[in-house]
Automatic annotation (TrEMBL):
Subunit record text: Homododecamer.
GO molecular function, one term: 3-dehydroquinate dehydratase activity
Active site per UniProt: Y23, H102
Keywords: Amino-acid biosynthesis, Aromatic amino acid biosynthesis, Lyase, Membrane, Transmembrane, Transmembrane helix
Catalytic activity: 3-dehydroquinate = 3-dehydroshikimate + H2O
Segments passing through the bilayer: 117-141
Database matches in InterPro entries: DHquinase_II (IPR001874), DHquinase_II_CS (IPR018509), DHquinase_II_sf (IPR036441)
Taxonomic placement: Bacteria, Bacillati, Actinomycetota, Actinomycetes, Micrococcales
Species this protein is from: Conyzicola nivalis
Source superkingdom: Bacteria
Designated name of the protein: 3-dehydroquinate dehydratase
Family to which this protein belongs: Belongs to the type-II 3-dehydroquinase family.
This enzyme's EC code(s): 4.2.1.10
Length: 146
């Protein structure tokens, strides 16, 4: 049984009502249903969300300790959290895949969103496809030999 951690940062608990013109109308429980429906046989989806940087860092440490692949939407932490970057680097330096995802395309938005401090240590980045960004990341994680 393979587990995949799907970690979501600040304000993503508000999906469904948060800026639907940017993020759509669906919420995180709907994302969980979508990923569970598409996950390959024998893969479990552990989807979590927090507004707290320390909690997110702790979950990345857990990924290292359990050798669990990560799909990470760091949300606003993407743009400035070196603490999160360092924790994400522990994951990829341990040889565990970590795919950075975004629902929107940050590069087509405000200038401050054009910088990601996470991308440089991520295994790969998928952005701009709505919830399909997570689905594409799940496919990518499944194709990486571990
Ligand atoms: C986001 C993009 C970020 O710039 C923003 O702060 C978010 C969501 C996305 O999924 O498109 O909270 O990560």
């Amino acid at each position: 049984m393979k587990n995949v951690l799907v970690l979501n940062g600040p304000n993503l608990g508000r999906l469904g009502s948060r800026e639907p013109d940017v993020y759509g109308n669906q919420d995180l429980p709907a994302l969980r249903v979508l990923l569970e429906a598409e996950a390959p046989e024998g893969t479990t989806i552990d989807l979590r969300q927090t507004d707290d940087e320390g909690t997110l860092i702790g979950w990345l440490h857990e990924a290292v300790d359990t050798a669990t692949p990560v799909i990470l939407n760091p949300a606003a932490f993407t743009h400035y959290s070196y603490g999160l970057r360092d924790a994400a680097a522990l994951v990829t330096k341990a040889g565990i895949p970590l795919v950075e995802v975004h629902i929107s395309n940050p590069h087509a938005r405000e200038e401050f969103r054009h910088t990601s401090v996470i991308s440089g240590i991520a295994t790969g980045v998928i952005a701009g496809f709505g919830f399909d960004s997570y689905l594409l990341a799940l496919v990518a994680v499944g194709r990486i030999k571990s």
